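Example record for the data management plan.
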Amino acid sequence: MLARRKLDSAGFQTWTVGGQVVARLYLGSCFDLFDMLADCDPADRPRSLFSDPPYPLTTGGRSADPKSMGGKFSAERYANDGKIVAGTDLAFTTWIRAALPALQPDSDLVIMSNDRNLRDLLNAAAENAVRFHRLLVWARQSKTPNRWIMAGAEFALYGYAGKSRPVINKPGADQITSIHGFKSATDHPTEKPVGLFAQWIGDITTPGELIFDPFTGTGAAALGALRIGRRFIGSEIDPRHFGAACRRIDDALSAGPLFANDRPTLPLI
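Corresponding structural encoding:
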């Protein structure tokens, strides 16, 4: 059954399969989408948030200048000022506080960070009454060279607001995930593996559940959700990354049916 996509006047790209809405992506600020979702009936809001939000990245690569990074983070690729993606000055606590009313009262949040920003993330979660479940670890196969110990892992807070729920799909799921053979599919500087999000989403959520990523980027969380039969809603402020995410969702849904006809639809906000 072919997936269909259309852009509406509110700035949403919407994908339907068999007449059912399975994904919606908003071109614009996540704060606008937070407000729209907060106005929905609580039962229609997302139950889970999975995201790799923007945060500052620091220098330290293999350049001749020890203060600059090499490879795709070299001075030729970006300004080397800690802002390789737009909005890295957005504090965790600012957007987490705004995001919570967009979720169901009892909700799960999986939010990524590197080691340097992890303390800020954990403090922001605590300040906004997001309780700690576990620290998830992505053990990267490729490491970021620098003048000290190479960074070979990234982290994610697995927390909850309201009442918690057990990991019903895979009790005893491993805290550490290693994705082999990951190669970037887009030019996004901090692209994450689709399989990483598919594993985390599959461990924590239920089939047909609505997954929310306010910083969609080029769509790793969206593709991970759709791959395992979850629905998706997200926002992306960069038109170039938005376009890449749309094309990747097109390709994923065109590859074959991912949804049964009895899946609930998304709220038409």
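Summary line stored alongside the record: The helical segments are 30-38, 92-99, 118-127, 194-204, 220-227, 239-254.
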